[in-house]
Write a structure and sequence with these properties.
By secondary structure, the chain is an alpha/beta fold. The chain has two domains: about 10-200, Rossmann fold (3-Layer(aba) Sandwich); about 205-245, no CATH class. It contains nine helices and eleven strands. It has an eleven-stranded mixed β-sheet, with helices on both faces. Helix 3 (about 95-100) runs parallel beside helix 4 (about 120-125).
């Protein structure tokens, strides 16, 4: 699989990470066919642009990926997928898995680029015996490849803070080297082995980092004075010592 130049990659979900994944994968691999499962297919342009100005990827210029087919019907975008990446909140992944289950072919890699929340358990619950019968590989990275934000929904996003390395795990665990090779190929970022999904589940970085960061916003607030929207600090780019100490 990893020597092919014509993989079909299905993206499920329409959040920030879906935008940036399409832009990145499509830009790095113009020969790949990207399909998309979305509840609002009419909103999506056929090309997604990732803006990299100000990031470590600025020298790459704008990243542009092409969506070959976008549909709300999994029968139209899943059956030929070699790789399926679910880019949706943890609580929605079970519903997505139920929708795509009948259309997943043998030897497919099914993953998410943010696997906290028990993604492996969700897959085992929904896909059941199909994992073994169809020789499926469940995979995930421990952290997102980059911070990203869709600012023109269905068309453009901003990518900042691309990681120098990704940490990837799989189920079954013996497929982890293949999962690392796949993520390195898709995102152009070296991927290292995480021994199991439990390592992801017990290290929920967002839930560790965000409370301390938000605390610093509000610790001196009088609970009356409105915030000036134009002066609101950025979540990551302007992190300060107070936030870091709480984390």
């Amino acid at each position: 699989m990893f020597n092919k130049t014509d993989l079909t990659v299905a993206i499920c979900g329409g959040g920030n990470l879906a935008h940036a994944s399409i832009a990145t994968i499509g830009h790095l691999h113009p020969g790949f066919k990207i399909t998309m499962l979305s509840t609002r297919p009419e909103i999506w342009a056929n090309k997604i642009v990732g803006e990299t100005k100000g990031s470590a990827w600025e020298s790459k210029g704008e990243l542009t990926g092409t969506i070959h087919k976008c549909s709300a019907n999994p029968a139209e975008v899943i059956p030929n997928a070699d790789v399926i990446i679910i880019c949706s909140p943890a609580h929605t992944k079970i519903d997505v898995l139920h929708k795509i289950k009948p259309f997943i072919k043998t030897n497919t890699f099914i993953g998410t680029i943010f696997g906290q929340g028990g993604f492996d358990l969700q897959c085992r619950y929904v896909l059941g015996e199909d994992i073994q019968k169809k020789a499926l590989t469940i995979f995930s990275s421990q952290y997102v490849p980059f911070i990203c934000k869709a600012h023109d929904y269905g068309k453009r996003c901003t990518i900042i803070g691309p990681k120098k390395d990704l940490y990837v795990t799989s189920y079954p665990v013996e497929k982890v080297q293949d999962a690392c090779k796949l993520m390195t190929l898709l995102y152009g970022i070296p991927s290292l082995v995480v021994p199991n999904f439990l390592s992801l589940t017990l290290t929920p970085s967002n839930q560790i980092i965000h409370p301390g960061r938000v605390y610093s916003f509000f610790k001196n607030w009088d609970m009356k004075t409105p915030f000036d929207k134009s002066k609101m600090p950025l979540l990551y780019e302007e992190i300060d010592d107070d936030s870091a100490n709480e984390i």
